[in-house]
Design goal:
With 348 residues, the protein is mainly beta. It has four helices and 16 strands. A 14-stranded antiparallel beta barrel has the order 1-2-3-4-5-6-7-8-9-12-13-14-15-16. The longest helix is centred in the N-terminal third of the chain and has 18 residues.
Length: 348
Amino acid sequence: MANKILNILIINFLAVVSCIAQTGGTGTYTFMSSTTSPRLAAMGVDFASFYDDDINLACANPSLINKNMHNDAALSFIDYFSDITMGYASYSRTFEKAGSFAATMQYANYGSFQYADATGETSGTFTANELAAVIGWGRTLTDRWSIGANFKMIYSGLETYNSFGLAVDVAGTYHIAEKNFDMSLIAKNIGAELISYSSERSSLPFEIQFAISQKLEHLPFRWIILLHDMQKWNLRYDDPTDEVTTLDPATGLPIEKTAAAKFGDNLMRHVTIGGEFTIAKIIYLRLGYNYQRQQELKLADLRSAAGFSFGLGLDIYKFEISYSHTVYTMAGAPNYISIKTKISDWIK
């Protein structure tokens, strides 16, 4: 019976994967793919394989939910572009037989907008908001293997249009404690829009990601490499200027990229790298680089820091505070901040 159920789950999973052919901008609930943890944002990633006690990673990777997060609570706030704000509140609890759980309420507030007709006449304002209630579960199978899943109930209200959907994340982590080595695989946002904005239902931002990280033995530094959008190879967009790298000085004609250059460019669009440096076990300096973000947001005639991110973490008394800043464009860059504490530390 168990094997039959497992086969059914695998068949359904492969069916979902085979139907997915987009990376972004063509579905709904895209806020579910946004980085919400300042720690992850500082390193340029939205998925990690750090097997520690950080509850801020629970939503990103449920297979990291473990008993060390018991009674932990966290709040996060993101000052996004313009008057858009995002954030979440999380709490974790472990039960001896059932495993470890993390409950998270995630939101995105897009601010207020003015009604306007075709002539430009305005008449009041409206708002747009999205919410997700996430129940995460994690269980340690052996001293090296752990699994987890997130169950998501998603609501979106854009003016008078409403949508409701369900989704799950399924993840697994391999952890070698003696080498401080971790790697994780996740299938995110497997689900459907049950109540749509209109008669036509939209797809969810499904994605497969793989992360590998290690904390160095003789240096207080942890590195991470993330492979994202593994369900789709081609992440390059059709831009006529993207095919031209420079002009031939002899003929003045454009020099097109070779097949190898295009392959390398596409490969790197799947890769994000980051690092975390620990000072005296209470200060954390973080840095990340996202190649795809830089290629899509860079300026042709002006050097830009698009694609880079950095942040700081502090352990103060009974709190862990994290801040990060990610560079998108010269017009603006999001700021992330979170605070974490263990509730039992405050109760005698």
